[in-house]
Please model this.
Amino acid sequence: QVQLVESGGGSVQAGGSLRLSCAASDYDRSRYCMAWFRQAPGEERKGVATISEGGVDRYADSVKGRFTISQDNAKNTLYLQMNSLKPEDTAMYYCALEPGVDCYLGFRMQFPYWGQGTQVTVSS
Model:
């Protein structure tokens, strides 16, 4: 059973930084797509970044140059380093996984597995 557990959220002031983690277990590591999404109150869930098992990463325009997605294969952990945070980055952040494929559809991948989310709040 695939499990994803996020951590690292919190409250910061604008301009600050946070690093989110997503511990993943029990999935085929030979080929996969992992991603971070976020959902603000009253809004649709939106993609933030994706990364394939080969390390190819992509970002939403709103976070390019500020956020970095990475992975530690030895620890089976996905990260999202968030710098220069803005109030509009406030949201619940979720990690997601689709095993067996690369990230060819980006945020439109099926992502059958999701974590429970971690809250990020940025104050002005």
User: Anything to note?
Assistant: Residues 48 and 61 are 9 Å apart (CA to CA).
